[in-house]
Design goal:
The complex is a heterodimer of chains A (213) and B (846).
Chain A (H helix, E strand, L loop, with lengths): L36 H6 L12 H5 L9 E6 L8 E7 L2 E7 L12 H4 L1 H6 L8 E3 L7 E2 L2 H18 L1 E4 L5 E11 L6 H14 L1 E5 L5
Parallel strand pairs in A: 7-8
Antiparallel strand pairs in A: 1-2, 2-3, 4-5, 6-7
Chain B lengths: L8 H9 L5 E3 L5 H5 L2 E3 L6 H14 L5 H7 L23 E2 L4 E2 L26 H7 L29 H8 L5 H7 L4 H13 L9 E3 L1 H4 L4 H14 L10 E3 L8 H4 L6 E2 L3 E2 L9 H6 L11 H13 L23 H10 L4 E5 L3 H4 L3 H8 L4 E6 L4 H8 L1 H4 L11 E6 L8 E4 L4 E5 L12 H14 L8 H4 L7 E2 L4 E2 L1 H9 L57 E2 L27 E4 L4 E4 L77 E2 L17 E6 L15 H6 L4 E4 L1 H7 L6 E5 L4 E8 L6 E3 L2 E3 L1 E5 L22 E2 L11 E7 L6 H15 L1
Parallel strand pairs in B: 1-2, 5-6, 9-10, 10-11, 20-26, 21-23
Antiparallel strand pairs in B: 3-4, 7-8, 12-13, 13-16, 14-15, 17-18, 19-27, 20-28, 22-23, 22-28, 24-25
Helix pairs in contact in B: 3-10, 14-16
The chains are: A alpha+beta (213), B alpha/beta (846).
């Protein structure tokens, strides 16, 4: 883990930032009305620059400013492998940004990578096991441990029922065609490794992923 | 590339800013075209004509990089007298068996040198039927890191004038691939072709290099592997392989799709591209090794690679006395690929199915077959971030709407397990340049969400606990399955798994390099090409030297690239035969005569102390058989193969075939489509007839920047859903006028499989092409939508339109070039949809 970058002014904590609304950047006092952005823009100042500034905008801080920590990560979409910085506060992901240190992406993210915080934090995300019994018409809930036991039972039973020790010519097969798997390209190397290791020991051979597609 | 790999495209723009000329070859005009110097619209599926004409341009004009070609490729090798080319046999190579639709490659072999000892059984390629077996098990893919076995002592002609030398065979093979043919078959005008041909010749040689970048626009064809082969031939002739700024660069579409090929969740290979064993042929370890690739080159160490893998899997149970548990491996008997598996589900042989971060009900070709397969399972486990359509087909799938399925009649038991996201677990992705990057965990996953590492580890523990003393349970019982557990959910340590993948020596320490792997059982290694990723007990993929450090182009201390942290493969070829860089501008690695070592900016891709002048003794094995000028160290002969004497299911040279579904006749041969392509002719896998007036248009599918594949990771996200809210089809103004399509209105696209509806985008980005004297229209379809999947936006499934027609080498489906009809208006709903398709099929067959 690297510690959070704090605030928009490097090296300063939030408390050290200049207070909003108390003065102009050049230090001269300014009347509250005369500093009102709408007025300044109506009077011809560039609305994309200083005239957009108000006490409220001065008080704004980026979500990244008060992160508890930042994790170095990698974008989960395509295979370019752009670096991501994942900002966390109070155990929740508050922002995901491009990692400027990455020699691959130099801090950039595409629309998908830039939206990836929603992949993690969207309120509609599914976080519970769902179960549909044979011929059932609705989802039911199921405890994770129960689901794991039920899946293990089915793997063992299906393997045994569909086991092929030899073929008709007596050639050794030592496998099952009863269990298949699809997926891996979105997973980690370590996950693919445990999958292939376990499936091969089980004798399951129809193991495929998006690389075939 | 700007659409689908936008951040990677910044480097193309960097190159352009430094003077590079950028060509974009694509059926439609995209964001990439907008930034390129030249956009060449091409008829989908005609790429070998274009690449073949470039090869012909190089050969007939004498533009090859002669010194590179002579030393680093097999141009001088003589081919067997028995070989017959597609030019001789009207589209077939010698050795074709029309009944099995497979090749026996025996006649493609090199002519053996008369003064050398007779070659052994090359790649096990003896006798008829071997080709078929090779083809039926996608064996060509096992050459992903090694090469196919081949005669290491062929006869040669260094003058390149012998009529049977590879160079002359190539010249004859591609002689009819002319600019005129490109114009007729691809729709690219001669002047445009000339600009491309002149530019790549001018930008290749000692001082300059040319790179080709591709993705599934080349692979998803019934001759996809040969598309890549054609590019490889061109790049080898121009000396653009193994050099900075050169190469053929695959842009892969998933965060670790490269990793899931290296450490494969694929049926035909074991980690590190070792082939899965085959019934009958691989009864024991010795029989397996005798035909699992060449004995010369670094593949010659395959026994050490496999034994180290078996030791990682079966630990102390794997001993020399029991073939290191080789017998625990299950055996293949043919096609066990994705589409064969789906048909097995429909036929009832497949009972249980795990779908892990994938969504075949939307994302695979022939979605109807996928869903009929799902509906015939006993049980289905779906693990995903999203409740994807594959998990809900029984409730809301299109076949429920048409009345072909009824929820209460579907017996499939479905488990949906929510997955941890990429920030809720640690581990490595391997990106498209073979670079492993470790991700730190930011937070714990919520609720029942777990990593797939957790799922498979704990499933394995449960399964092991249920094993009996039966012999069939032995491989599971004896499986080494003990990883440290961490945290409240007993998460297995990803670092410990990575360390096992990276290799462990007899002293229990992490290995430095795959050259340390032994065949005596004293080393363990889960994937030999990843060996050294934990060298010195350092998690090397986690290294993060900011901005790449002193050499940001190579960035050797950012992550870790397989093999051996090499960033450019075959980089021995970046130096001339004497070991000197071809030019200062393109220097990468070179021979330091004073130090007696190879050195340079990158890790040299050769033995570091083998001098350029080294010549191997006769009969040498493994890397001992390589000379000091052999850059392709995994190949049996150390050469880049312009001609592949063995290893491909559909011929030693790329040949233009029409897509399985095409509106035009093959302009070159009587053989219309790849004769070895894999098809499944059965009622649930229908095809449009070639040149069918009922399906007159070319259909091609693609991605958009704002979505990801079948949409499971993008449609539920508000930002992305808003940016691209709706399925659309792109058609030219001319096609819109021909069919009465209105911009912003609806269109129905029809194939033999089904019909879908999409909004119409009338745009000059799609250009009608003149092919063989007539106009050919192309319809473009992004494929990100589905009916549900927690999507904030929904739409019909584009992949439902596509046929099950596959490349015979790697079993990838042809989703970039099919045929269709397009009519104005929305598609019919309910049973009327099937009635529409039925009428089309009857007309098409008639």
């Amino acid at each position: 883990m690297v510690r959070a970058f704090v605030g928009s002014c490097p090296g300063m904590s939030r408390r050290d930032q200049p207070p909003g609304g108390g003065g102009r950047p050049d230090g001269r006092p300014g009347g509250r009305i005369r500093r009102w952005p709408v007025l300044r823009q109506l009077l011809g100042e560039d609305p994309r620059a200083e005239a957009a500034r108000s006490a409220r905008t001065d008080a704004l801080r980026p979500r990244t400013a008060d992160a508890d920590h930042v994790a170095r990560s990698v974008c989960p979409y395509c295979a370019v492998g752009c670096g991501q910085l994942v900002y966390v506060r109070d155990g929740r992901v508050t922002q995901i940004e491009g990692d400027p240190d990455s020699p691959i992406s130099r801090g950039r993210l595409c629309p998908k990578g830039a939206a990836s915080r929603q992949l993690v934090t969207r309120p509609t995300r599914r976080t519970r096991v769902l179960y549909r019994r044979p011929y059932g018409t609705e989802w039911e809930t199921l405890d994770l441990e129960t689901a794991m036991d039920m899946i293990a039972d089915r793997v063992v039973a299906t393997r045994r029922q569909t086991w092929q020790e030899t073929d008709a010519e007596g050639r050794v097969l030592r496998r099952t065609l009863g269990i298949a798997s699809l997926g891996g390209a979105t997973l980690d190397n370590e996950e693919n490794y445990l999958m292939k290791k376990l499936y091969t020991a089980l004798g399951a051979i129809q193991i495929e992923n998006q690389a075939r597609i | 590339m700007a659409e689908c790999h936008p951040v990677g495209f910044q480097w193309v723009m960097e190159a352009k800013a430094r003077g590079a000329t950028v060509f974009h070859i694509d059926p439609r005009y995209t964001r990439t075209s907008a930034m390129a110097d030249v956009h060449l619209p091409i008829r989908a599926g005609s790429d070998i004509v274009l690449l073949g004409a470039l090869i012909n341009h190089v050969l007939s004009g004498g533009h090859e990089f002669r010194e590179y070609v002579l030393t680093y490729t097999n141009a001088a090798h003589l081919v067997s007298e028995d070989f017959r080319d597609t030019e001789d046999l009207d589209g077939l190579f010698s050795g074709f068996d029309p009944d099995g639709r497979t090749y026996d490659p025996a006649s493609w072999a090199y002519a053996h040198r008369s003064d050398a000892p007779p070659p052994g059984e090359v790649g096990g390629a003896s006798g008829a039927g071997r080709g078929r077996e090779h083809a039926e098990t996608a064996e060509a893919e096992t050459y992903g890191s090694g090469g196919a076995a081949a005669d290491a002592a062929p006869a040669t002609d260094p003058t390149l004038t012998h009529p049977r030398c590879v160079f002359q065979v190539l010249k004859r093979h591609f002689a009819r691939y002319t600019p005129e043919l490109v114009e007729r078959a691809c729709g690219i005008p001669r002047a445009e072709f000339a600009r491309l041909a002149d530019t790549i010749v001018a930008c290749s040689g000692r001082d300059r290099t040319t790179a080709w970048v591709y993705s599934v626009g080349w692979t998803q064809h019934t001759a996809g592997a040969q598309f890549i082969r054609a590019a490889a031939i061109l790049q080898l002739l121009l000396g653009n392989i193994g050099r900075p700024g050169g190469g053929i660069l695959a842009l892969r579409g998933h965060a670790s799709i490269q990793g899931s090929t290296d450490i494969p969740t694929l049926f035909n290979i074991l980690p590190g591209y070792l082939p899965m064993p085959h019934a009958g042929r691989h009864e024991d370890l010795d029989a397996y090794l005798a035909s699992a690739g060449p004995d010369t080159g670094f593949w010659g160490r395959k026994r050490a690679y496999l034994v180290s893998l078996l030791k990682a899997w079966w630990g102390e149970h794997a001993t020399a006395g029991n073939d290191f548990c080789f017998g625990h491996l299950p055996r293949l008997t043919g096609d066990h690929g994705h589409y064969a598996t789906v048909l097995g589900q429909i036929d009832g042989t497949v009972k249980g199915y795990f779908v892990i971060g994938e969504n075949p009900a939307v994302g695979s070709s022939g979605g109807r077959a996928q869903r009929f397969g799902l509906a015939n399972l006993d049980w289905l486990v779906v693990r995903d971030l999203t409740l994807v359509e594959t998990a809900t087909f029984w409730k809301d799938g299109p076949e429920i709407a048409t009345g072909e399925m009824r929820t209460e009649e579907i017996g499939t038991e479905v488990f949906f397990l929510p997955a941890a996201s990429h920030v809720e677990k640690e581990g490595t992705f391997t990106n498209t340049q073979r670079l492993l990057q470790w991700r730190e965990k930011a937070v714990d996953p919520p609720g029942d969400c777990r990593s797939d590492l957790w799922f498979f580890y704990h499933l394995g523990k449960r399964v092991k606990a249920r094993m009996t003393g039966d012999e069939i349970d032995r491989p599971v019982r004896e499986l080494a399955w003990d990883y440290p557990e961490e945290g409240p959910h007993a998460e297995p340590s990803a670092a410990a798994v990575l360390r096992e993948i990276g290799g462990i020596g007899p002293d229990g320490r992490a290995l430095d390099s795959y050259t340390e792997l032994r065949d005596d059982g004293s080393t363990r290694c889960g994937c030999w090409i990843y060996c050294g990723c934990y060298a010195g007990e350092v998690n090397r993929p986690a290294r993060r030297e900011p901005r790449g450090g002193a050499d940001p182009w190579i960035a050797p201390d950012w992550g870790w690239a397989w093999p051996a942290n090499r960033r450019i493969l075959y980089n021995r070829a970046s130096a001339d035969p004497d070991g000197r860089p071809w030019s200062p501008a393109k220097a990468l690695v070179w021979w330091d005569a004073a130090a007696g070592r190879w050195t340079g900016r990158d890790v040299p891709d050769c033995e570091p102390d083998k001098p350029p002048g080294h010549r191997p003794p006769s009969g040498a094995r493994a890397e001992q058989a390589l000379s000091g000028t052999d850059p392709f160290i995994m190949q049996a002969d150390g050469k880049g193969w312009l001609y592949a004497p063995f290893g491909l299911a559909d011929g030693p040279l790329p040949t233009h075939y029409e897509p399985h579904e095409s509106p035009v006749a093959n302009p070159l041969y009587g053989v219309q489509a790849n004769p070895a392509r894999v098809v499944y002719p059965r009622p649930d896998s229908p095809y449009n007839p070639p040149r069918s007036p009922r399906f007159p248009y070319v259909l091609t599918t693609y991605r958009l920047t704002e979505h990801h594949t079948a949409g499971g990771m993008s449609r539920p996200l508000p930002y992305l859903a808003e940016l691209q809210p709706e399925l659309f089809c792109e058609v030219s103004p001319e096609l819109a006028a021909e069919r009465g399509l209105v911009n912003g209105g609806w269109a129905t696209i029809v194939t033999s499989r089904t019909a879908i509806e999409a909004r119409v985008l009338v745009t000059e980005r799609m250009r009608p092409l003149r092919i063989e004297g007539r106009t050919v229209h192309q319809v473009g379809l992004p494929y990100h939508w589905g009916w549900g999947g927690d999507g904030l936006v929904t739409g019909d499934v584009a992949n439902d339109l596509l046929p099950l027609a596959l490349d015979p080498n790697v079993y990838i489906q042809e989703s970039k070039a099919a045929t269709c009809d397009i009519i104005p208006g929305r598609r019919p709903a309910g049973p009327a949809l099937r009635e529409l398709v039925r009428r089309y099929r009857e007309d098409g067959d008639g």
